[in-house]
Amino acid sequence: MRFNYKIILLFVIALYVLYGCTGTRHLKEDEKLLLRQKIVGNNSIEKEELEELYLQETNSKVLLLPISLNVAMYSIGKLFYDTASLQQAKEKKIRKYDRKISKKEKEGKSVEKLQAKKEKKVNKKRRAIEEGNQFMRLGEPPTVLDSNLVHQATFRMERYMETKGFFENEVELLLRPKGKKSVIAEYHITEGEPYIIDTIFYNIPDSTIIGILKENSRNTHLKKGVNYDQKALSDERERIDFLLKDKGYFDFSRQYIDFDVDTAWVAPKQVAVRMNIRNPQRGEHKVFYIDSVIFITDAHIRNIPDSLRQNEYYQGTNFRYFENEYNTRILNRRLFVHSGDVYSRSNTINTQRQLANLDIFRFMNINYDSTGGDFIANVYVSPLDRYQLSNEVGLNVTQGVPGPFYNITLRRRNIFKGLELLELSGRIGIEGVAPATEIGNVYRSTEAGANLSITFPQFLLPISDRAKYKIGTINPRTRVQTGYAYTDRPEYLRTNINISNTYTWATKRNTLNSFTIADMSLINSRLDDFFLERLIELQQNGNNLINTFDPSFVSSASFSSIINRGRYGEEQRKAYYIRVFLESGGTTWNFLNPTFLENQGLEYFQFAKFNVDLRRNDPINRKTTMAYRINTGLAVPYSENRILPYEKYFFAGGSNGIRAWRPRRLGPGSYSPIDPETGLVNYRFEQQGELLIEGSVEFRQNLIGFIDYALFMDVGNIWTIYQDDNRPGAQFNIEDFWREFAVGTGIGIRFDFSFLVFRLDAGLKVLDPARPQGKRFILSEGFYDAPFTRRASEPVIFNIGVGYPF
Fold first, then answer.
1. The pLDDT value given to residue 633
2. DSSP structural state of residue 589
3. CA pair distance 37, 49, nearest whole angstrom
4. Please, how many CA atoms are within 13 Å of residue 745, restricted to the half-sphere of its CB?
């Protein structure tokens, strides 16, 4: 074990400097740094809810250390910040451009460009004066204790707890010194006993509304025996407002609803609530029935008299247009507002949503007109461009060095006047990958492809129009696609001609389902000589992996369901994501004889595959998040050759898996490919398996400006489900599989440019199941040796990625 003393010395010096980055050295004599704020003593109310009431935000720290790089960055910028110089520079710019503009005006020339340039330059100086220079804007000033603000926070907490039923609460503020220039603010909470809702009264003169509320009482937010909560009153007001608007009360408003709360009606700490729903000044609330529906399909055309529009009536709806562009029967399936129906806000919103889901219309709006005595629903839509050409250029990282890619897509809308979408797309990408039979080198991999697809806004199934209308609320789609894919890797060249037919639908706004009834591929491969020799060697030892690279016909049917709660992946907020995938390959050959495929020299496969991917984000505060992932899968080949198509195997390792191992190099099980020359584990070959179990935990925090860092731990492995004599230890064993989990940890840096996240991760091996029992813990060995030496065992792996790993 070797120590690099220069590196350690630099580390100690850097740590000493960083410890000075708390901001205290920049404070005035009478100022103190608000180092931390704590909530103490809360039992029923979540700490996170009370922390939202802080009026001062402490400086972000690196983990638990008193180090704030943001303050350090701000302090560096402050050294070069001079408002007087900046003000002079701004005035100089103004004078300079005023002279140029004056000269242009005298010459009778346009000054618009000069005016715009002047405004841009002056605004840049003004921003520097008001917000500081670039360093100051990337960082943040030290949070100086403001006694007034921390005391106001205590009052806010007391008021908030009162809204939760703790009317006798108390919040005591303690300012504890931490050193000479820092303070910790502690908010000591005494909640007291909560007040309970004991009695609920109703003051509703409209008997019809009383009946509606009784029918829907199961969904009420007001319940006896629970803590009084002011939010429940607000939620109940919103619920009733939406409910009544769904029952035809178009002009009802939440302003008609209020609550009277009495804490002395029955007994101490008991609350009586009276709900009041007032009538309008004239009569009772009116239920509105839709007299007619007018659907204008070309609302964007305004320079032609409306009287020239044609009328087409279909199932009570008057479709109006200058030119008949759409199949009204299909369009009507996304319309849930009909003549004779009671007005419903839900149906109105759902109609707008489903029309937007078609990706045919640029604008859609529904308004109701009662000025003439009738209640008329007017639906206005205007189309998107019929043709749309889009290009995308970027970097792609799957398992190696990033490389460029280019996508081009031509979209044709409403091609058969049935609201269809035709897409013709092409893609080419180049990236660096580690070959399947080597390590330490990076080779170019080229992927290219072309696809032609047509998406229909309905299920192409032999079902009635009535059934198709009923399922219109779930955004049904049928996608028919054919494509060609070309992959050129160091060890093989592979082509794939594919045809598929997929049905998609959304049962809820956050749940997307997909059923591929047929997915057929004709695959051909040309192998590198060395790779072929390796596959032949495996075959001689009983492993038939070589068959997956024979010319083959792969057919399957699959189902997937994705649940995305809280918009996972879009924002740093509490959210979770679940994807369930089921696939049955070659099921047809259970009923048909595949001999004709064998006669054509084509390999075929029969298999069942299952995969579940669970992800979760839990923000701790505005700048800190915990992220979790569990990914499991099982693929069972049951054809005579007991193999899967190469793309259907599971692999472990890489930038989106166990990051302390190179892509596809982990496992299977405790299989230990030892290099006879070095005596170390040889990660030269890709390793495939039929069973996958992996999980990750990641701590994410803002470091400074747009730069974040992460600490992570990954656990998992792959296994075979059948005995593989060529890879001893690869088979899954229920009794001791847990002993074969690989464990990796590490640190990552993320550059969040808002439009993309560029990621650098360093994975460090902790437990390597390929090593003998008792020698699998290699954390210390990897930590000291890996950064400074090149070792075949590769205890540290560096990953590059675009986007978060999960």
1. 95
2. G
3. 14
4. 10
Closest of 422, 469, 579, 611 to residue 513, by C-alpha: 579
* pLDDT category of residue 375 using cuts at 50, 70 and 90: very high
Distance CA 270, CA 237 (A): 22
Q: From CA 92, how far away is CA 135, in angstroms rounded?
A: 23
Residue 520 · residue 500 · CB < 8 Å: yes
pTM of the model: 0.81
Contact between residue 400 and residue 416 where contact means Cβ atoms under 8 Å apart: no
Condensed to tens digits (0 to 9), the pLDDT of residues 625-680 reads 899 999 999 999 988 878 898 889 999 998 889 999 888 888 899 888 777 777 77
Across residues 149-172, what is the average pLDDT?
A: 94
Tell me the Ramachandran region of residue 234: left when phi exceeds 0, alpha when psi lies from -120 to 50, beta otherwise: alpha
Residue 252 has pLDDT above 90, yes or no: yes
Taking only the tens place, the pLDDT of each residue in 741-760 is 999 999 999 988 877 788 88
* Residue 299 identity (one-letter amino acid): A
* Separation of alpha carbons 623 and 172, rounded Å: 27
Name residue 797's beta-bridge partners: 763
CA distances from residue 679 to 466, 744, 771 in whole angstroms, order as listed: 71, 22, 11
- The closest alpha carbon to 736, from 724, 714, 719, belongs to 719
633 beta partners: 611, 692
What CA–CA distance (Å, rounded) separates 169 from 163? 11
Cα(238)–Cα(254) distance, integer angstroms: 7
803, pLDDT greater than 50: yes
Give SS3 for 221: coil
The whole-chain average pLDDT of the chain stands at 86
791-to-440, 687, 742, 786, 787 alpha-carbon distances in Å? 10, 20, 19, 7, 10
Quickly count: other Cβ atoms within 10 Å of residue 714's Cβ: 27
Distances (CA, A) of 616 to 579, 619, 692: 12, 10, 19
Residues sharing a CB contact under 8 Å with residue 384, sequence separation 6 or more, in sequence order: 359, 360, 361, 362, 413
Closest to 773 measured CA to CA, from 744, 739, 745, 742? 739
The three state secondary structure string of 611-638 is: EEEEEEEEEEECCEEEEEEEEEEEEEEC
Categorize the per-residue pLDDT at 783 as very low, low, confident or very high, splitting at 50, 70 and 90. Answer: very low
How far is 510 from 533, CA to CA, in rounded Å? 49
For residue 198, the SS3 value is: strand
pLDDT band at 622 (very low <50, low <70, confident <90, very high): confident
What is the average pLDDT across 415-436? Answer: 85
